[in-house]
Amino acid sequence: MNLKLFGGSRLRTAEIKLDGASRTRTLVTWTPVVEFDRIQELVFQDMSFLNSLIKDPKYQTNDPRQPDEIGDPEIIISPDTRREQRIPPGQSRTKKWPVLDAHGAPEIDLANWRFEIDGLVERNPSFSLDEFMQLPAVKVYADFHCVTRWSRLDNVWTGVSTREIARLAGVKPEAKFVLALAYDYGWTTNVPIEYFLKEDSLFAYAHDGGPIPTEHGGPVRLIIPQLYAWKSAKWVKGVRFLAEDQAGFWEEGGYHMRGNPWTSDDGERFRWS
After folding, report:
1. What is the pTM of this model?
2. How far apart are CA 180 and CA 160, in angstroms?
3. Residue 134 falls within a domain, yes or no?
4. Which of 22, 59, 121, 152 fits as disulfide partner to 144, beta carbons 3.0 to 4.6 Å?
5. In the β-sheet with 177-182, what is the strand arrangement from edge to edge?
6. What domain count does the chain have?
7. Per-residue pLDDT reduced to its tens digit, 161-179
8. Domain with 156 in it
9. Which among 73, 57, 75, 97 is positioned nearest to 159, based on CA atoms?
10. Nearest 10 degrees: CA dihedral of 205, 208, 213, 218?
11. Residues 6+ apart with CB under 8 A from 228
């Protein structure tokens, strides 16, 4: 069987061949002058029909809602959803929820899961998963912008506000940065405390009304809607409050120390941007 996907005059073809031995070959050719970002945008557009063949429970079938269409007055509205243009520079909308990570999902023993807080704090509270789920909950309506140039609009997250975590720990005034700690092999990421403490930032355990799947960072992940999504650490196990900035996993590799998607004409993707 042959499937040919046409992405316009510049993206020539993407041809998939399935033979009797169930071997798969993929050939993609394009005009060399085409920018990678444009190719990615075309692929997102032209391959969306595959969702009719493969059932994706997270696939969005409707246009994103506007903030004033959110009927629940208890839901916190992320301010970036109110922008006239909700997609940051250099980004393209996806209706799916792609899975990206550094090492793959770690094995987490939920019975022994702990969330711990240390660093520049008055107290060092620690929570089991059941205890964490009993903390006051908030809901946040926000968009989600991956540094790899896709944006998933219209998400509702449920979890514990980062402000509540800071309150329980008694963060000291000299704390200026937060280091998120994750279960996946020592992975970390750094966040300026002013973004960590935004009203729309939270430690989420539910997405669009259901538990966050393991591949998307469950049981609990950090969500910082106003920064690129790599700052929204998956599989979190705690946070550390710091006086000085400390590069995390991707930041040590050259990713931006802050990661604001709205600055300049292409966002803060890398340290040289």
Report:
1. 0.79
2. 15
3. yes
4. 152
5. 126-128, 114-119, 236-242, 177-182, 188-192
6. 2
7. 999 999 999 999 999 999 9
8. 63-252
9. 75
10. -20
11. 145, 146, 147, 256, 259, 260, 261, 267, 268, 269
